[in-house]
Amino acid sequence: RDPPCGQKKGRAADPSPGFERRNPAFLGGTRGAWGRGGACGRGNPKPARFPTPPCVAMAPALLLIPAALASFILAFGTGVEFVRFTSLRPLLGGIPEPGGPDARQGWLAAVQDRSILVPLAWDLGLLLLFVGQHSLMATETVKAWMSRYFGVLQRSLYVACTALALQLVMRYWEPVPRGPVLWEARAEPWATWVPLLCFVLHVISWLLIFSILLVFDYAELMGLKQVYYHVLGLGEPLALKSPRALRLFSHLRHPVCVELLTVLWVVPTLGTDRLLLALLLTLYLGLAHGLDQQDLRYLRAQLQRKLHLLSRPQEGEAE
After folding, report:
1. First-to-last C-alpha distance (Å) of the chain
2. 184 forms bridges with which residues in the sheet?
3. DSSP secondary structure string, 79-131?
4. 165-170-173 Cα angle (round to 5)
5. What is the rounded CA–CA span in Å between residue 139 and residue 136?
6. What 3-state DSSP class applies to 17?
7. Radius of gyration for the chain, computed over Cα atoms and rounded to the nearest angstrom
8. Which DSSP state fits 241?
9. Where are the domains of the chain?
10. Measured at the alpha carbon of residue 194, what is the angle toward residues 192 and 195, in degrees to the nearest 5?
């Protein structure tokens, strides 16, 4: 057989040892960069498989960033709407006048009134939908399935689905203005001071909630840190945490339980629909917690460690 054009008979020219390893386009012998037969050989030209440039390899990873940011924005907007739903509306919604079209009914009359029972049943269905989604997607089986098909977007997808479920609850929630109330601050001076006190407690509770979320690694909770670490090739963020911390996180699904209970129950008027919301979410928050003595010892040790670190500058100044 004739050698490829431009090459003499005999041993194939090899510019230097290891040339084929350093240049994937050179496939050895009579195979050049265009496949079988060389650049002037017979057959269909076939481009060689060059190494993927870093920018191309980074492109799929960079596509994950908009998805994670969209999930974060949706969750943030849902959180703002949840503040309005649980705090601003009950505190600033007003009280129906006695004898008006929205006059309250007694408990016995409410049990037989379809205009009260139907909205309550609808609200109960919305709450069960949210609780079911939030619990089902938190199981190990579902998380493993989501991690298999969505990778590092597993947490972002969970956050987005939770935000959408909560949006459904808030958007389609049916108030029951004619339902009975468990308590109501109507007479003066309680009608002025009780809403003000509730407002102050709600502000403090929400500030504590936001502070605790920042302490508990807000970026990891929202799924941003997983994508950020994946793009930079740093691995899984949870792998950097100690086994005792991971055990605590698995048992403490809602680190803002007390503050949320304050927001749910401390209102000037606790109507029927608000009572349903507070009762069901209180049960859910209580059942989701599973702290034991080992978790409490870990928390106590971490608290003592933090206090020791904070007291070091003062000890240095005293010396």
Report:
1. 91
2. 269
3. HHHHHIIIIIHHHHS--PPTTSTT----HHHHHT-HHHHHHHHHHHHHHHHHH
4. 110
5. 6
6. coil
7. 32
8. S
9. 1-51, 58-312
10. 75
**The two three-digit tokens of residue 16, written as one number:** 């230097």
pTM as predicted: 0.70
- Helices 154-171 and 140-150 pack at an angle, to 10 degrees, of 120
What are φ and ψ of residue 35, in 5° steps? 95, -155
Tell me the pLDDT of the chain (319 aa) as tens digits: 555 554 544 444 444 444 444 444 444 443 333 333 444 444 444 444 434 444 434 547 778 889 999 999 999 999 999 999 999 998 886 555 444 445 677 788 888 888 899 999 999 999 999 999 999 998 889 999 998 989 889 999 999 999 999 999 999 999 998 889 888 887 777 888 999 999 999 999 999 888 877 777 788 888 888 888 888 888 777 666 666 666 666 656 566 788 899 999 999 999 999 999 999 999 998 886 666 566 667 667 766 776 777 676 554 444 4
Helix (H, G, I), strand (E, B) or coil at 29: coil
Q: At what angle do helices 257-265 and 272-288 cross, to 10 degrees?
A: 170
DSSP 18: T
Long-range contacts at 287-290 (CB < 8 A, ≥ 24 apart)? 288/135, 288/253, 288/254, 289/251, 289/252, 289/253, 289/254, 289/257, 290/251
Residues with Cβ within 8 Å of residue 127, at least 6 apart in sequence: 169, 276, 277, 280, 281
**pLDDT at residue 21 in the model:** 43
* Cα–Cα dist 27/47, whole Å: 11
* Whether 223 contacts 159, CB under 8 Å: yes
Task: Report the 10 Å Cβ neighbour count for 267.
Answer: 26
**Contact (Cβ atoms closer than 8 angstroms) between residue 84 and residue 263:** no
Smallest CA-to-CA distance from 160 within 141, 133, 187 is with 133
Contact 171, 130 (CB under 8 A): no
